[in-house]
Amino acid sequence: MTFFFKQITAATCSFMVFFSSTMSAVQYLFLGMEHVNTALIFAIVCLIASLIGLVVVQRAIEHHGRASLIVFSVGIVMALSTVLITSFGAVDVWRDYTSGKYMGFKPPC
């Protein structure tokens, strides 16, 4: 019974990722963004990488018997992205400060 729910969960997650990325791609096409060939290459690479990741995670869960591996991996990615975004933002602020650029509010448009 739990195997059935795991399959439904994996299918739902895969569909939502596919749906949101497809809608983002359609939005870029409607807005006139170009580089369609590069986007297709990235789409193929991401599809292959996501399939490999799905197989690796499923085997790791079967081997260890713990679904918490997913939670830990998402937590690690979130922590790493927080550190990297903060670091790159600090570097940009320091670069603007040392070059004497205006660092006040910018117009939204």
What do these coordinates show?
- With 109 residues, this protein is mainly α.
- The chain folds into two domains: 1-66; 67-100.
- Helices cover 83% and strands 0% of the residues.
- It is built from three helices and no strands.
- The termini are far apart.
- The model has no long low-confidence stretch (mean pLDDT 81).
- Keywords: Membrane, Transmembrane, Transmembrane helix.
- Belongs to the 4-toluene sulfonate uptake permease (TSUP) (TC 2.A.102) family.
- The chain crosses the membrane at residues 40-57, 69-91.
Keywords:
109 residues; 3 helices
Helix content: over 70%
| Number of β-strand runs | 0
Assess the beta-strand content as a share of residues: under 5%
Shape: flat
| Number of separate domains | 2
Structural class determined from secondary elements: mainly alpha
Low-confidence stretches: none
Continuous helix count: 3
How many angstroms does the end-to-end distance come to? 53 Å
Transmembrane segments: 40-57, 69-91
Keywords: Membrane, Transmembrane, Transmembrane helix
Family: Belongs to the 4-toluene sulfonate uptake permease (TSUP) (TC 2.A.102) family.
Topology (SSEs and partners):
Elements: H1 2-30, H2 36-64, H3 68-99
Task: Sum this structure up briefly.
The protein has 109 residues and is mostly helical. The chain has helices spanning 2-30, 36-64, 68-99. The longest helix has 32 residues, at 68-99.
